[in-house]
Amino acid sequence: MIQLREATPDDAVIISLLARFTFTETFGHYFTDPTDLEKYLDQTFKVPKLRASLAKPKNIFWLAYVDELPVGYAKLKLDSPSPFLDADRVCQLQKIYVLKDFLSQKIGLELQNVLLDKAKTLGFQKIWLSVLKENTRAIRFYLKNGFNTVGDHHFSIGQEDFDFQVMVKELT
After folding, report:
1. Contact at 8 Å (CB) between 152 and 166?
2. Is the pLDDT of residue 86 over 90?
3. Furthest-apart CA pair in the chain: how many Å?
4. pLDDT exceeds 90 at position 97
5. Nearest CA-CA partner of 169 in 122, 123, 116
6. Distances 34 to 39, 43, 99, 145, 162 between C-alpha atoms, Å
7. Beta-bridge partners for 59
8. Domains, the chain, ranges and CATH?
9. Burial of 11: CB neighbours in 10 Å, binned 0-12, 13-18, 19+
10. How many CB atoms lie within 10 A of CB 92?
11. How far apart are CA 77 and CA 90, in angstroms?
12. CB-based contact 16:45 (threshold 8 Å)
């Protein structure tokens, strides 16, 4: 049974661990130098950093559980403009990550739905996200759920260069 709940700063340890595992499962094979991956994980997913992020009013996190085990998380960033959008009330679907062993249970869809419902309830007009171009599974998921591609951007981690596409969905 899938259970979702909004996260609090007390959940930073759980989210930190999930973030490290899910990021490595999703992107680890793209890193030729394992120290680049480890540095990124340490910089991005440290418990104090996530605790601070969870405490910010513009960030809303959710946790997903299956049989009481934490298996995924999502993050919505409120009032997050994008150079690819011309709208006043814009938010960002910043993260949806689910442990690989649980992907088939449609937990990502459940997390996306709760996140979209929250964004609509708060009166946002559009939501955007950034997805790695090679992540065809995620791109298909977002296209199937009403997102459209509006642009591209580049991001580097250590020696690795990544190409992302920006996708947007109308909420009104």
Report:
1. yes
2. no
3. 44
4. yes
5. 116
6. 9, 14, 20, 34, 16
7. 77
8. 2-170 (3.40.630.30)
9. buried
10. 22
11. 9
12. yes
What span, in angstroms and rounded, lies between the C-alpha atoms of 153 and 144? 22
- Check: CB of residue 34 under 8 Å from CB of residue 84: no
64: its two tokens: 């997903």
Quick one: tokens of 44? 């991005």
Percent of the chain with pLDDT over 90: 90
Mean pLDDT value across residues 97-110: 96
Strands (DSSP E) found in 14-147: 59-66, 69-77, 90-98, 126-132
H or E element, residue 52: helix 47-55
Name residues whose C-beta falls within 8 Å of residue 25's C-beta, 6 or more positions apart in sequence: 99, 100
Tell me the two tokens of residue 118. 């929250």
Of the candidates 41, 57, 37, the one whose C-alpha atom is nearest the C-alpha of residue 49 is 41
């199937």: which residue's tokens? 144
